[in-house]
């Protein structure tokens, strides 16, 4: 009995030591704090997700997710800088340390997790690949694309998905590979391709922001893939992976709990234990991450909960007009589900 007691105490001591080490062992977070900002990799310019305005101010869903991470780390959502990346350069930029975190339509796949040295920490947007075509072609189904020329970004899952789908459906097509997003969009609208294929949300952004006349183009009904667009960091730094993972979960939990950027301070005296932990009223969550106890409060207050970020950038009142769909909360028929913060 005494041996069991001593053994249990030893296990507890090792676990506590490991917990303390993991909370303070991340080189990435230390480097970010020394530098004074988070370096975030984003799209070169996709409406609704990441797009610079005439003053070079970045806006969009991916941008706001980066800003939430900066708010959690520094208490200031503006302490972030953005690196625009193509499909072919995005992973190299992360691997090389040029950026700290990649939030740029990166689909979580087995080979990317195992061969590229990346950790995917949270799926922030559930998407699927579709096709954009001119209405004038009279095409109503993707299966009518036999013999078509299709614009596509190289180095993307879209390229592989298109090849697999076409083979399975015995469809011949001619790929037009164009590295830069803006060049691919321009080529499609100039008539170089019969269709343009990418994530359906991205097609909605392209049509809304780049089409000469958006009503002249249609997104075909078929979705040919699953595209869990996820936050990516380098493997080997569990602390930084945890920071990005739990900031995102805090945004989702805030929406689940009815907490918004406008009403968050009204929850200061809430008796709800989940909200107390989320907002740092019950301490410990910030310490576990190596962040201030106000980490989640600052992210939500300055950027908003998940639903606010979605509606502001992608929702029904924006040019994209996207429904929540799979990105609704699990309590509303969607897939977004906050992992317990406790």
TrEMBL record:
Signal peptide positions on this chain: 1-25
Gene3D superfamilies referenced in this protein's UniProt entry, alphabetically: Periplasmic binding protein-like II
CDD domains reported for this sequence: PBP2_BztA
Keyword Signal: yes
InterPro entries with a match to the protein in the record: Bact_solute-bind_prot3 (IPR051455), Solute-binding_3/MltF_N (IPR001638)
Domain of life, source organism: Bacteria
Keyword Transmembrane appears in the UniProt entry: no
Record-annotated Solute-binding protein family 3/N-terminal domain positions: 37-265
Matching Pfam families: SBP_bac_3
Keywords carried by this UniProt record: Signal, Transport
Family label: Belongs to the bacterial solute-binding protein 3 family.
Protein name from the UniProt record: General L-amino acid transport system substrate-binding protein
């Amino acid at each position: 009995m005494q041996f069991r007691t001593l053994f249990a105490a030893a296990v507890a001591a090792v676990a506590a030591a490991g917990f303390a080490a993991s909370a303070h062992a991340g080189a990435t977070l230390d480097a970010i704090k020394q530098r004074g900002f988070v370096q975030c990799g984003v799209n070169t310019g996709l409406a609704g997700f990441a797009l610079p305005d005439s003053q070079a101010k970045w806006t969009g869903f991916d941008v706001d997710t980066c800003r939430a991470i900066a708010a959690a780390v520094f208490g200031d959502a503006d302490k972030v800088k953005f690196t625009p990346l193509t499909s072919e350069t995005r992973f190299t930029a992360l691997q090389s340390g040029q950026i700290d975190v990649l939030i740029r339509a990166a689909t979580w796949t087995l080979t990317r997790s195992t061969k590229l040295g990346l950790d995917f920490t949270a799926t922030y947007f559930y998407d699927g690949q579709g096709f954009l075509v001119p209405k004038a072609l009279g095409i109503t189904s993707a299966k009518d694309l036999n013999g078509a020329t299709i614009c596509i970004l190289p180095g993307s899952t879209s390229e592989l998905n298109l090849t697999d789908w076409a083979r399975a459906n015995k469809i011949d097509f001619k790929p037009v590979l164009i590295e830069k997003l803006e060049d691919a969009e321009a080529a499609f609208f100039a008539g170089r391709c019969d269709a343009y294929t990418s994530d359906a949300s991205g097609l909605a952004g392209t049509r809304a922001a780049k089409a000469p006349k958006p009503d002249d183009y249609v997104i075909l009904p078929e979705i040919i893939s699953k595209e869990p667009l996820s936050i990516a960091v380098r493997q080997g730094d569990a602390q930084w992976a945890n920071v990005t993972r739990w900031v995102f979960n805090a945004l989702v939990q805030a929406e689940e709990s009815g907490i918004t950027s406008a009403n968050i301070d009204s929850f200061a005296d809430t008796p709800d234990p989940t909200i107390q932990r989320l907002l740092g009223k019950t301490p410990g969550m910030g310490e576990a991450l190596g962040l201030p106890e106000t980490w989640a409060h600052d992210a939500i207050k300055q950027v908003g909960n998940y639903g606010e970020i979605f509606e502001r950038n992608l929702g029904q009142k924006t040019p994209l007009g996207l429904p929540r769909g799979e990105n609704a909360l699990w309590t509303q028929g969607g897939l977004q589900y906050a992992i317990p913060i406790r």
